[in-house]
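Re: that backbone. Tokens:
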């Protein structure tokens, strides 16, 4: 059996003391980078087996065969979940079963075995608890949990790798991925590069979807934009999603978002916001949305685990730039965000209570 991921060479030493259960990070200035934590989780299985037992191991570098499927052919998936510490001292995850199911769908597409939903949630909980001192104080941020499913066995021919590794690492992050946060994102509508195409893998969180967007994303950032909004690759007329979040528009009190038809990642936050919006009385449509409709919308916002709900401040398409008001405290995005926060903080009972998984 291939000796993959067999040695953990941490090389990382934590000098942080633990005060009141926290590590001594500057909690008021958490960034959105990788801060090494204490433990990571690892579970392996071979191609025709199921995952059985995983374990927590010290956080550190991993050793891989140079012929690993993930390194050569991009056979890999990732997920993103946040653990948040509440004022009442509880630590909660938001709908981790949805991430587990999405990983299963992705694994099927990428010819990989996947952990069961229970194994996935158990591993996520263990990873967060083992790194509890890195979970930011209430309101200061969250512990970003990154599950990976990788083809780690060596393979030269074009076939699924002979061995797989499910790995989870965690890192503390600030509340919103974008520094712009509530002041609004400035999106560049990309009409040259596409993120996904019909029959491809745009609907799963495959690592192969992300490297190709670095070029348009870097170009846009160099020009002062926050992120890129991609268009459908067939007609180039309809909006799809942003590099790491879904998009919604609001027109005359109706909320619309592009339908997930195989080229858009079905975001857990997207799905939750659709349900929340309907519950609080909005009409929500999932359908094709043209760029023109976006430019004429009353409001636009993005959703995702990393951003939660963030307003769009402007959209630039070819030579046209449209600005949206982002200071309205009665905006749809504000209402969705405050309902979401109330659910997370346990202030709303009812069906949404089942969305939270407590880990302590
Ligand atoms: C391309 C893309 N779209 C949308 C999302 C939002 O998904 P979620 O709400 O599950 O984080 C993400 C982030 O995971 C993403 O990478």
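Recovered sequence:
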């Amino acid at each position: 059996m291939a000796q993959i991921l067999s040695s953990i060479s941490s090389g990382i030493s934590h000098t942080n003391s633990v005060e009141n259960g926290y590590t001594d990070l500057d909690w008021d200035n958490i960034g959105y980078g990788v801060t090494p934590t204490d433990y990571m989780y690892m579970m392996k299985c071979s191609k025709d087996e199921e995952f059985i037992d995983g374990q927590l191991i010290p956080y550190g570098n991993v050793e891989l065969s140079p012929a690993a499927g993930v390194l050569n052919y991009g056979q890999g998936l990732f997920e993103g979940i946040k653990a948040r510490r509440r004022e009442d001292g509880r630590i909660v995850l938001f709908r981790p079963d949805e991430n587990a199911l999405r990983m299963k769908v992705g694994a099927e597409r990428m010819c990989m075995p996947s952990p069961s939903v229970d194994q996935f949630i158990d591993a996520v909980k263990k990873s967060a608890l083992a790194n509890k001192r890195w979970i930011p104080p209430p309101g200061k941020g969250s512990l970003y949990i990154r599950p990976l499913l990788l083809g780690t066995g060596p393979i030269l021919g074009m076939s699924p790798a002979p061995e797989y590794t499910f790995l989870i690492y965690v890192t503390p992050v600030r509340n919103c991925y974008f520094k712009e946060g509530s002041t609004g994102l400035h999106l560049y509508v990309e009409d040259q590069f596409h993120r996904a195409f019909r029959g491809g893998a745009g609907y799963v969180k495959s690592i192969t979807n992300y490297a190709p967007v670095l070029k348009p994303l870097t170009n846009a950032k160099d020009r002062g934009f926050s992120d890129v909004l991609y268009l459908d690759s067939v007609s180039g007329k309809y909006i799809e999603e942003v590099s790491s979040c879904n998009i919604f528009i609001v027109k005359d009190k109706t909320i619309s978002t592009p339908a997930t038809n195989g080229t858009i990642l079905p975001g857990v936050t997207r799905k939750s916001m659709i349900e929340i919006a309907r519950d609080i009385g909005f009409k929500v449509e999932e359908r094709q949305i043209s760029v023109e409709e976006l430019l004429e919308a009353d409001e636009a916002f993005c959703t995702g685990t990393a951003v939660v709900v963030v307003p769009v401040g402007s959209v630039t398409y070819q030579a046209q730039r449209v600005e949206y008001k982002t200071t309205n405290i009665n905006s749809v995005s504000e209402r969705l965000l405050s309902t979401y926060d109330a659910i997370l903080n346990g202030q709303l009972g009812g069906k949404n209570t089942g969305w939270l998984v407590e880990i302590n």
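The chain has seven helices and 21 strands. Residues 1-15 have pLDDT under 50 and may be disordered.
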